[in-house]
Amino acid sequence: MQKTKRMRKGRLWSLVTSVPELTILIILIAGGYLIMGVFSRVEGTEVLSPSAMWLIIVGCFLISTAVAVLAVIGGIGGGVIFTPIMLGFTHMDSLVIRATGLVVAMFSGLISSGPFMRSQLANLKVVFYCGVPITIGALVGSVSAIYLHEALGAVGDGIVRLSLGILMLVVAYFLFTGGGKTEYPVPKRIDALSVKLRLNGSYWEASLGKMVDYQMIRALWGGILFILLGFMGGFFGLGGGAFLTATLNLIMAAPIKIAAACSGVLLAISNATAIWTYITYGALIAIFAAPWMLGQVVGGILGAHLLIRIRAGFVRKVLILILLASSVKLIVRGVEGTFGIHIPIL
Amino acid sequence: MKGERPKPPLAALVYGEIVYWGVLLGSVIAIIGSTLAFLGDNFVPVSYWLSSVWKGESVAQIWEGTTGSLPMGHWYLPHLTTGDALTALGLSLGVFAVVPALFLSSAILLKEGEKLYGTLALVGGLVVLMGVLGLAPMP
Fold first, then answer.
1. Pick from A107, A211, A281: CB nearest B3
2. For residue A88, what pLDDT is reported?
3. Pairwise CB contact (< 8 Å): A48 & B71
4. Contacts of A125 in chain B (CB under 8 A)
């Protein structure tokens, strides 16, 4: 027991010394929120008191940190948790939620880009090859979201909720079955395009204590799928990390660790494209989105460094329950919004 | 399988480090901006932003109560002395880090003779830049 405590303390201390920038950031955030609470000059409205506003900001930061940690352990993007819950259970505007959802989806991926590139888990060739189709898809998806919102209004929001609810059922299924992922896929036939693109590499596998070489396949199909995945992320305001990882692992035969790391970096690139549409349109309300961003940065680093030993199986079960509950609520609200009917039971 | 650990490519390191430190810089600016927003001047009062979002007002309704119309651009850039605009700058800077990272990485790859991947990084950077500049047609 004491040994475990000492080990935890040691890990925490090593995190403080090895990632000093995280410590400084946490101190800055804590100090900032303390000053905001004590010296606030914000006036209350009929909807919210000044203390309620402060609580919303601090609450969003804490929830975002927890979401980032859960997402890192569960191997999915934070947007997949944030966007369905907010769209299903709150009355906030769907564009505001989707813009903030992109912030939640992308910042843990952005911050992990550095460590993934340093450790060579993210393959630069794979990232840049898949980066082009996914950014194009993301840009088209985000613009389409604005068009649909403008053209169809409440009915458009209903369609978004309904289709997102169905999509979340697919994500829950993926998490439940593990998507048939394989740690080290061995391709039977290597296509000419993948060879020409040199979609291969090697990385240090700590569990085996040696370098592992890999060759990826189906470059063309992967590229086409990444256009669709980019569109989905930009349109719904979620990353869809589970789908990116599955595409890289199951279709393109990347080892699971490479697929997860490349998916994180690609998620960040595609959402970094999509979010500008929402920013310039005015759908990203910075004061509301900032605590979500900060929580993702802190939670993303913490999750990756500290909680790697927590049993992912338990977290996955929690995530499946969250996704199922959100998808049921989203489908109900989607049917209500799209067809103008009221479902009283739910 | 082999035993030696090769060094990561320079272009990958440059990409990762620019994004990492860009996001951290953006985060610091965002927390400073948020704090200032609660203490002093804002482009739009914090209470208005949060109450409108909390009430579930649409984006158009929210902006109607501020400038009268949707911003359709980077509204925060001319107002950087205010807390809410500084917060928006922090968020944007964190996201924008991807653009110089892609361009510099592309330059290194092209210099190393990796024409295909250098060009792909350049195209990726240009697509993101299209989004930044708001060049995509909007309704």
1. A211
2. 81
3. no
4. 117
pLDDT mean over A61-70 = 89
Decide: A83 and A163 in contact? Cβ < 8 Å. no
Is A88 inside a domain boundary? yes
Contact across the interface for B131 and A275, Cβ inside 8 Å: yes
CA distance A110 to A20: 18
- Flag if B87 and A286 touch (Cβ within 8 Å): yes
User: Which residues, at least 6 apart from A316, have a Cβ–Cβ distance to it below 8 Å?
Assistant: A74, A175
- Looking at the 3D structure of chain A, how many domains does it have? 1
| Interface contacts (A, B; CB < 8 Å) | 265
DSSP state of B77: G
How many other CB atoms sit within 10 Å of the CB of residue A346?
10
Of B13, B32, B59, B74, which to mutate for an interface test with A (greatest number of A Cβ within 10 Å)?
A: B59
Q: Cβ contacts of residue A60 below 8 Å, gap of 6+?
A: A288, A291, A292, A295
Answer yes or no: is A12 within a domain.
Answer: no
* CB proximity A50 to B under 8 Å: yes
**Is residue A61 in some structural domain?**
yes
Which residues span the domain enclosing A320?
19-339
Percent of residues, chain A, with pLDDT higher than 90:
34
- Decide if pLDDT at A303 tops 90: no
Q: Give the dihedral sign, CA A90/A92/A94/A97.
A: negative
Q: Which position has the higher pLDDT, A77 or B77?
A: B77
CA atoms of A291 and A61, how far apart (whole Å):
4
A320: in domain: yes
Q: What is the pLDDT of residue A308?
A: 47
Residue A1 has pLDDT above 60, yes or no: no
Q: pLDDT (tens digit, 9 = 90+) per residue, B20-36?
A: 999 999 999 999 999 99
**Is residue A49 within 8 angstroms of chain B, CB to CB?**
no
Residue A10, burial from CB neighbour count under 10 angstroms (0-12, 13-18, 19+):
exposed
Spell out the residues 6+ positions from residue A313 whose beta carbon is closer than 8 angstroms to its own. none
Nearest to A44 by CA among B134, B118, B54: B54
Tokens of B30: 């965002």
- Tens digits of residue pLDDT in A226-260: 999 999 888 887 777 778 888 898 889 998 888 88
pLDDT category of residue A4 using cuts at 50, 70 and 90: low
